[in-house]
Amino acid sequence: MLDQIDRNILRVMQKDGRITNQDLAAKSGISPSACFDRLRKLREQGYITDIVALLDPEKLDRSLLVFIEVVLDRTTNNHFDEFAAVVRRMPEILECHMVAGGFDYLLKTRVANMAAYRRFLGDTLTLLKGVRETRTYAVLEEVKYTTNLQI
Q1: Where do you find CATH 1.10.10.10 in the chain?
Q2: Where is the HTH asnC-type domain (predicted)?
C-alpha cells in the first residue's frame, strides 16, 4: 500500500525523471537514503516501470498523429494473438489497444505526413492477415497530451 510519501515521490518522478535523489528526497521531506530505498521498492513493486525521454515528433519528422480503428474479419484468440504480434513490430504504431464496441483495435500512429500515412495504410496495415476494415482519424490539433497519471 502506498503512503503519502510514496505518492509524492511518484508525482515528482512523473514530472522530472532526471531529478537527483538528493532533490527528490528534499521535495519528499525524507532523507536521501530513505528516498533511495523507497524509490528502489517502487521500482521492484512495478509502480515505476521505466524512465524515458519524451521526444518532439515534429523535430523528428513524425508530425502527423493518426488514430485508426481496425476491424478484424474474425475475432478468435489466435487472430487476436497474430494481429498483436505483428503490430508490436511496426514502428509507426505507438499504441495498440484492443477495445470493446464497434471495432476491435484502436491504434495510435505517428508518421511524417499524409503521404507517408497513405503508404503505411495501403502497403502495410490493410494487407495484414485478418484486417477487414479500417477507419482513419487524422489529428488536426493536439489539445492535451500528458504522460502523468493522477495520483
Answers
A1: 4-44
A2: 2-63
Contacts 24+ apart (CB under 8 A), 76-84: 79/130, 80/104, 82/129, 82/130, 83/128, 83/129, 83/130, 83/131
Domain 4-44 has CATH 1.10.10.10: yes
The correct answer on CATH 3.30.1330.10 for the domain covering 64-138 is no
**Helix-then-strand count for the chain, H and E:** 5, 4
Whether 134 contacts 117, CB under 8 Å: no
User: How confident is the model over 67-94, as pLDDT tens digits?
Assistant: 999 999 988 899 999 999 999 999 999 9
Prediction pTM value: 0.90
